[in-house]
Amino acid sequence: MATFLYRLGRFSFRKRHVVALFWVALLALAGAGAAGAPAAGNSSFSIPGTEAQKAFDLLDERFPGASADGATARVVFKAPDGQKMTDPGNKAAVQDTVDELSGGTEVAQVTDPYQGGGVSQDGTIAYSSVTYKVPGMELEESSREALQAAAEDARDSGLTVEIGGDALQAIPETGSAEIIGIGIAAVVLVITLGSLLAAGLPLLTAIVGVGIGVATITALASTLDLGSTTSILASMIGLAVGIDYALFVVSRYRAELAEGREREEAAGRAVGTAGSAVVFAGLTVVIALVGLSVVNIPMLTKMGIAAAGTVAVAVLIALTLIPAVLGYAGRRVRPAGEKSKLLGGGRAKDKADRPNMGTRWASFVVRRPLAVLLLGIVGLGAAAVPAGSLELGLPDDGSQPTSTTQRRAYDLLSDGFGPGFNGPLVVVVDAQGSDDPQAVFQQAGDEIKALDNVVNVAPAAPNKAGDTATIAVIPDAKPSSVATEDLVHDIRAVGADIKDGTGAEVLVTGATAMNIDVSQKLNDALVPYLVLVVGLAFLLLIVVFRSILVPLKAALGFLLSVLAALGAVVAVYQWGWLSGLMGVEETGPIMSMMPIFMVGVVFGLAMDYEVFLVTRIREAHVHGEKPSQAVVTGFRYSARVVTAAAVIMIAVFSGFIGSSDSMVKMIGFGLAIAVLFDAFVVRMAIVPAVLALLGAKAWWLPKWLDRALPNVDVEGESLAAHDGAAGKDDEDKELVRA
To answer: Where do the H-state alpha helices sit in 15-87?
Structure first.
């Protein structure tokens, strides 16, 4: 592989015009497709194989035209102090609002609070439910404006009016913090690479890669039903790995120049060595992201595949576009150790022979491996403690900031109708084939009323055929509570008894039941996912490192870092530690997808640093250095770059903490803290400590397995053959010049 990539690097350097034109054309093509495509909405959320989804599908079949997947809005009214919603003036204002809402072309139904039981017992709060014919993100802007205008007209009459539901749901924004993250990345690149031009190359190529990936996702969003968050997450991961991969290639190129090689030869060797590490690091990320499909939640699968595609583009750009732009840069990219005058070039030579920070740190770890290992494990273990109280759920209006109208509507409904009113359960009774469907409906309603934690059970509402009915159940506790989850299980137990006795099927759905089923499905999929992803990556790393213990150490280190990161997420977003600093206005359960998504993404990113760092150590060991000295040598050449890459990735991920979307905000923080733990504690401390303790045993591989494995030559041993050829070329050039 090293030889092939070496030739690819030299080709890209030599044919830079062709390579650059190819990527620019691809970016333009993707951009044109995105410009002409419909805007991305929210991906349709489904969880195949769960009871909540089965009930939802049954509603679509048995209640045609009911717009089961349509957007909803709850317009909540509160009377002025000392007044009631039943007062003539307030009642007239509400009825005017209902009439105004009913005129929308996309409106399917509007309820009158005075006819449908939508007034609280104390008479101070009322609500009207609006159902639309299309999902929330497909609503015309005119429909949203009409909804807000109707609410504003009611406010003019003196009422307090707030709007809940998904009808006002907007495409999430990442905020200005993302730009700050890129700015920090630029500063780190300048310090690491020693010049503004060299620092600009990774940023430029990463932006090109993310542009192609995000534009492609945008162009296909409507066709493939990709959610609005898909492109944000793809850009988050693509930008981080794109900068890192380019940084590693550029750094190796400068190191090769420092060895005295010609620029084309240096580009070829940079791609042949660092590029090999990029390929395998990218493969681990792609495996982890594509592996999310085993969960069988379409939205998560699409997010993973889209992000994996962006990572693949970043790998290809690092292998081809980076050497091409290095060719354009020429002598303006300086050899390692030689900095521009702007950055203190005169002092660089004086410091060239001094041990750098990486060398000094690795030497310390090699001398005190056991102490460093124990301190790292204990520290990560302490950070992981909060993960023991992890509570999972999906965000609803109750997790919105208190400044939003959705949150204020949620609170008003809780005050007027109880906390469970915001999470109603929908019980679907399928009595098709039953001798007396009405009796089955009545039995189901009566048995549910007898359960604990039930405030109200509405009369059964049958369909036109009379064989299926829905029963609305209002719990006594808030949607995310354990009590409501227990109620869902109790209703399902009642349904099982009814099925045994009558043959009728009783199913529970609604947002709350959907959340419970999602959490359960993700919990059930976590172990198979870990086995698949870690197993495949373990095999891949055996091929890369030609060792059993090094990949095993890599996997165990990853588990430590991801548990510590989950603990930090729980501490901030569930317990509320440092919530003000992180912009968390409301604590609550952790998003159900967070653990498995973090496992997938963090594993891929953790293996990035493992591959980049340990391949440099193995390269020194293969070339004859003793194990402890190989660790020091590996850190001498790679610690600075790995540290810079980690800081860049942390900065990029942290930028997404400013997003308006709670899911993106939480993922941004989780990935940033996970990279911090993994890069600086696991890879920079635990890895060299373990390698120092294992010594030569770290590279042990059974002879039969050594013979069976393909030799991918990540260290670039085969490139030694090109030294002679390169020297002969240099002699020929000298003769020609003479």
So the answer is: 16-35, 51-62
> Do β-strands 468-475 and 454-457 pair in parallel, antiparallel, or remain unpaired?
antiparallel
Q: Are 33 and 215 in contact (CB under 8 A)?
A: yes
| Maximum separation of any 2 CA atoms in the chain, in Å | 105
| Residue 321, CA atoms < 13 Å, CB-side half-sphere | 28
b/e per residue 364-386 (b: at least 16 CB within 10 A):
ebbeebeebbeebbebbeebbeb
Tell me the C-alpha distance between 172 and 420, whole Å: 27
Amino acid at 154: A
Domains and their CATH numbers in the chain: 1-39+175-354 (1.20.1640.10), 72-165 (3.30.70.1320), 365-404+525-701 (1.20.1640.10), 405-515 (3.30.70.1430)
HEC states along 589-601? Answer: CEECCHHHHHHHH
Q: Exposed, middle or buried, 629 (CB in 10 Å: 0-12/13-18/19+)?
A: middle
pLDDT per residue over 611-654, tens digit each?
888 888 888 887 788 988 999 998 988 888 888 888 888 888 88
Helix (H, G, I), strand (E, B) or coil at 25: helix
pLDDT tens per residue across span 523-538: 888 888 888 888 887 8
Residue 89, number of CB atoms within 10 A of its CB:
11
User: What span, in angstroms and rounded, lies between the C-alpha atoms of 389 and 156?
Assistant: 46
Structure tokens at 120: 């609280």
Six-digit token pair at 623? 């070339």
In this prediction, residue 13 has a pLDDT band, given cuts at 50, 70 and 90, of very high
Per the listing, tokens 């009369």 go with 459
Residue 47 and residue 514 in contact, taking contact as beta carbons nearer than 8 Å: yes
The DSSP H or E segment spanning 472 is strand 468-475
CB 313 within 8 A of CB 234: no
Is the model's pLDDT at 545 over the cut of 60?
Answer: yes
Could you tell me if 605 and 591 are in contact, meaning their C-beta atoms sit under 8 angstroms apart? no
